[in-house]
Amino acid sequence: MLPESQRRTLEEVAEDLELRRGDTRSKQSAYWTMLTLSGLIATAGVLNDSTATVIGAMIIAPLSTPIMGIAVGVVQRRRNGSVPFVFFGCLLVIVLGVLFSVVLPGSYNLLANNQISSRTSPGLLDLIAALATGLAGAVALARRDVGAVLPGVAIAISLVPPLAVVGVCAGRGSWLLALGATLLFLSNLLALALSGMLMFTALGYATETAQALPHAPRRVRLMLTLLVSAVTLPLVANTGITYLTAIWTERVQTAATAWVRQVPGAEVTSVSVTERTIRVNVRTPSDLPPVDSLLADLNGQIPNGIPVVVESTRGRQVEAGTVGGG
What we know:
single chain; about 5% strand
């Protein structure tokens, strides 16, 4: 993974990642300036439901620098001041999100926004992706010849956008959504720090300081591992819930489609789950069959106690001719 000809020294890696080393004034001013701008861009992109804008914010966001600095500090077995930059940087982006939420109209539907809904229900795959991203980022930082992949690493790991979502949701009083976005950010942060720490150790950087600090505590390593394990549990649970919900939705779709066949021209337009309720949208030219028959068909197909709501739209599709076709 790390040919000697392409190996960067530990001092070089630390120089890039530690904001209290070298020209600290320039480093810190660039960090806070770019983080503020990326927070503004990310929040605007989230509220506009613009994927391209959010990706732009992820590319310029410098938050991963002090997070990987934490990993280097653990490998070097010393404090390098990276933690405060992460903490106050997170706080800055959340505050920006709260400020943006103040100007939103009262009718703004948070869950109708894909940029928000996709970041409030993280799963186990998000953690796996974050771990792999951290490993890739550590390799890119350690090698001289693959530094060009770092922008891709910045896109792959979602740090600033979830914090923007936390601020927007908190500002709107949607605390459960804010909690989901917080869980996504924490899983990414911990996975990035842990995988960076493991990769830097595997690449041999730990041995360079082992003799100088033979009795350094390993509590930070243990703490990061425990925190990742603690975050994994709700991610696994949420993944299971998402999987079961998809199965139940498919069963309702099948049963509802068979149910509306009794009415010529009727069709199921969508089946969705909102607020623990399964909603079936039907377009029909006339009255629908009794809903009790649909509920009877679903007995044993989905858990008891889950509300099923049928919303119908009266109308029919009219075949149109070709303009100029006579």
